[in-house]
Design a protein that fits this description.
334 residues, 65% helix, five-stranded mixed sheet, alpha/beta, 13 helices, 5 strands
C-alpha cells in the first residue's frame, strides 16, 4: 500500500504541467490569428490555441467546457475569461500563462469568471473531498458485506449492497447540502450519482471477495483510491497530468462522479448524460462480477459440502470467523 500510494499520488500530483491545454484568443482579422500563433509558438505542446470571433462565443465554449480560458484582444485592457468551477488549478495555470502576455502590452490583466463555484467552496475542490468520503464509506463496507456477509444468500447480499450504497450516497448528499453547503441546487441528483457510484464499488468489491478473500482490501484500494482519486480531475484535470492518469480520466468512475457533479451544479447539465453513463457502466461491470462470484461461490459451497467430513466443520467455521475478523480489522486500519 505504501509503494502503491506513493507511486499513484506522486506520479499524478507531484509535477503538474499543461499538455495541450485548450485556450482561445478572442478577436477577428489577421491580428488575432497572428497573436494566437505567437502564443502557440512560445507555448509549444503546452497549449492548444484557437481563435474565436466574439466574446459571447468564447463564453459559450467555456460553459460547454471546450476551452479552459479565453484571452480577449481589444482597445481596452486585455481580459482573460475563465470558468473556475471546472478546475481552480487549471485557471491558475491559465492566469500564469496570460499575465505576462498582458504585461508585455503594458496593461494589467482583467480576469472575468463566468462559472465560479459557490461561496462555501471557493476553490471548487469540495467535490473531490466529497468523492473521498463516499469512496471510503463504500470500500470499507466491502469488508463487511464480503467477509461477514459471506454466509448470506446472494439475494440478501444484493439487497444489502443496494441499501448500504443508498445510505452512503445519502451521507454524501448531507455533506454536500445541509452540512457544508457545497451544492446549493441539484442535491437529489447528486445523491443519485453518489448512490450509483457507491453501488458500483460495492458490487465489484463484494464480487472480488469471493476470489481474493483478504486481498480484496488491497485490490479495492488500488482500483478506487490509488487510480481513482488521482485520475478524477478533482485536484488536477487531465490536461495538467501525464498521459497515464489523463487517459484514465476518460472512463474511470471517480472522474464520472466529479465531472458529473460539476456539470450538474455549475455547467447547466452539459455532458451530464455521458458522466452518468460512465457510472452506470461501472455499476454494470459490478453486477457482472457479483453474478460470476455468486455462481462460483455456490459451486464452491457444494464441492466443500460433499468433500468435507462432518467432524471438521466446527474447526473450519472457527478459522473462517478468525479470517473475517482479521479482514475487518485490516479494513478499519486502512
Amino acid at each position: 500500500m505504501c509503494v502503491g500510494m506513493g507511486l499513484a499520488y506522486l506520479g499524478a500530483f507531484a509535477a503538474p504541467e499543461p499538455h495541450h491545454l485548450p485556450v482561445a484568443v478572442v478577436g477577428s482579422g489577421a491580428e488575432a490569428k497572428v497573436f494566437a500563433q505567437t502564443v502557440k509558438d512560445k507555448a509549444g505542446d503546452a497549449l492548444d490555441v484557437r481563435t474565436v470571433d466574439t466574446r459571447a462565443t468564447a463564453i459559450d465554449q467555456l460553459k460547454t467546457r471546450k476551452i479552459d480560458g479565453a484571452y480577449v484582444l481589444g482597445d481596452r485592457a486585455p481580459e482573460l475569461i475563465v470558468a473556475s468551477a471546472g478546475s481552480d488549478t487549471t485557471v491558475s495555470v491559465v492566469e500564469k500563462i496570460f499575465t505576462p502576455v498582458a504585461a508585455q502590452q503594458g496593461e494589467p490583466l482583467k480576469v472575468t469568471d463566468v462559472a465560479p463555484p459557490v461561496s462555501d467552496d471557493p476553490t471548487g475542490q469540495g467535490l473531490f473531498f466529497l468523492l473521498v468520503a463516499v469512496s471510503i464509506g463504500s470500500y470499507a463496507s466491502v469488508a463487511v458485506l464480503g467477509g461477514a456477509g459471506a454466509a448470506l444468500r446472494t439475494r440478501t447480499r444484493a439487497l444489502l449492497v443496494a441499501g448500504v450504497s443508498g445510505v452512503v450516497g445519502l451521507i454524501g448528499a448531507a455533506f454536500a447540502g445541509p452540512v457544508f453547503h457545497l451544492a446549493h441546487t441539484g442535491l437529489w441528483g447528486l445523491w443519485g450519482m453518489a448512490w450509483v457510484y457507491s453501488a458500483g464499488i460495492l458490487l465489484i468489491g463484494v464480487g472480488l471477495h469471493t476470489f481474493l478473500k483478504r486481498w480484496t482490501t488491497l485490490a479495492v484500494m488500488v482500483l478506487f483510491v490509488m487510480l481513482n482519486f488521482t485520475s478524477s480531475g478533482g485536484v488536477f484535470r487531465p490536461e495538467l497530468q501525464n498521459g497515464f492518469f489523463g487517459s484514465l480520466h476518460a472512463f474511470w468512475n471517480g472522474a464520472g462522479f466529479v465531472e458529473g457533479a460539476r456539470s450538474l451544479l455549475y455547467f447547466e447539465h452539459y455532458d451530464l448524460g455521458r458522466y452518468v453513463w460512465t457510472l452506470v457502466a461501472w455499476l454494470a461491470v459490478g453486477a457482472v462480477v457479483f453474478a460470476v462470484a455468486a455462481v462460483a461461490g455456490h459451486r464452491q459451497e457444494r464441492a466443500l459440502a460433499a468433500a468435507a467430513p462432518v467432524e471438521d466443520m466446527g474447526v473450519k467455521d472457527v478459522e473462517d470467523e478468525e479470517e473475517v475478523e482479521e479482514e475487518l480489522e485490516e479494513a478499519v486500519g486502512v
